[in-house]
Amino acid sequence: MTSAPVFDAKIPEAASPKVEFISLSHLNPSTELNPIPTRGIDLKYFRHYVRSLEEGGYDYTLLPYGAASADSFVVASAVGQLTERIRPIVALRPNTTFPLVGAQKLATLDQLTEGRAVVHLISGGSDAEQARQGDYLPKDRRYARTSEYIDLLRRAWTEPEPFSHEGEFYRFDDFGPGFAPYGSPIPISIGGQSDEAFQVGGEKADIFSFWGEPLDDLRGEIDRVHDIARAAGRTTLPRIWVTFRPIIAQTDELAWQKAHEYVAKISDTFGKAAYGKQRFITAGSPQNVGSQRALSFAEKSELYDRALWTRTAAVTNAAGASTALVGSPETVAAAILDYVDRGADLVSIRGYDTLADAVDYGKHVLPLVRQELAHRAATGTRGTLQAEHLGNYAEEYRRHATAGQA
């Protein structure tokens, strides 16, 4: 059993004073639990999904990008018009869009949404996936390209006079001034676990994203990216985004029953390569360091800290964000707060039963986290949620987690 830390009233020094929530927008009802062969957009479902995020109190939604996916810019524009408050995050691969055109598209989205646009730059973790759209640049140079791309985005948004550029990856003459964002420059997010990712993210990103990892390991990674930022002379450090796939039910016991049902279905789905892009990414050892780390954690243990479960990563070959938080809404909210206490202030939670889970999180998890943070702001002390809902720090939780297993 994992040893329980002391949950006293003192707010940890590294704790973020606020948290904002991210989900991922889904275009149709196909899920890892129940894959439906499709390459299209179910417009009625998509509208329902996005509006559910707005009603559920989410702050952002990520519009993913892949060689065989819908275009993230177009989908983000639709999100902007279907909502009043949600901030669309455009996933963008630098190899697919010239930086000045990317700046123009993002500024247009920002104008249409009155300042809500965010961009998440994907340098590319798989040579095979990059090659599907004609990108043969080696992985280490892809982050160098991202670094140059970030500089050009910001210059395109802010330079008051025309400028020229001749770099390693891009060249142009007498551009500008470009089309401006609605207000302040658009936040730029990147992620990754390679040395190159940390260097570029620490030096230049507004947001650095991680997949869910054990608390101590993640804190070390946060320190690493922030140390790079400080060494680069930055006074504003990158915000920290962490992603989980929570599995919740009314009680911890019921959540674990659901979790074991889910992982059996997910394992079957991935074994058949029956869900979306899995046919491209499940074979062999993952090339990206993030997936390698996730599988390494899964090999060492299925359970970490209060509620982090790695078996979902193991059965999917860590294909994307896949680590789960398992428990009652109170246990999962307490686990999220553990990460907030370590410095995360953007938390992405998306489920395996996509729409139903998004609705449930909005009703049952987000309010608990926000209630605790409101208590901290009002009193200067922590509430009791983390002390009362111990999850894996209590013996009963572990019994539920292992019930029925050989």
UniProtKB/TrEMBL annotation:
<dbReference type="InterPro" id="IPR050172">
    <property type="entry name" value="SsuD_RutA_monooxygenase"/>
</dbReference>
<keyword id="KW-0503">Monooxygenase</keyword>
<dbReference type="InterPro" id="IPR011251">
    <property type="entry name" value="Luciferase-like_dom"/>
</dbReference>
<feature type="domain" description="Luciferase-like">
    <location>
        <begin position="37"/>
        <end position="345"/>
    </location>
</feature>
<keyword id="KW-0288">FMN</keyword>
<keyword id="KW-0560">Oxidoreductase</keyword>
<protein>
    <recommendedName>
        <fullName>Luciferase-like domain-containing protein</fullName>
    </recommendedName>
</protein>
<dbReference type="InterPro" id="IPR036661">
    <property type="entry name" value="Luciferase-like_sf"/>
</dbReference>
<dbReference type="Pfam" id="PF00296">
    <property type="entry name" value="Bac_luciferase"/>
</dbReference>
<keyword id="KW-0285">Flavoprotein</keyword>
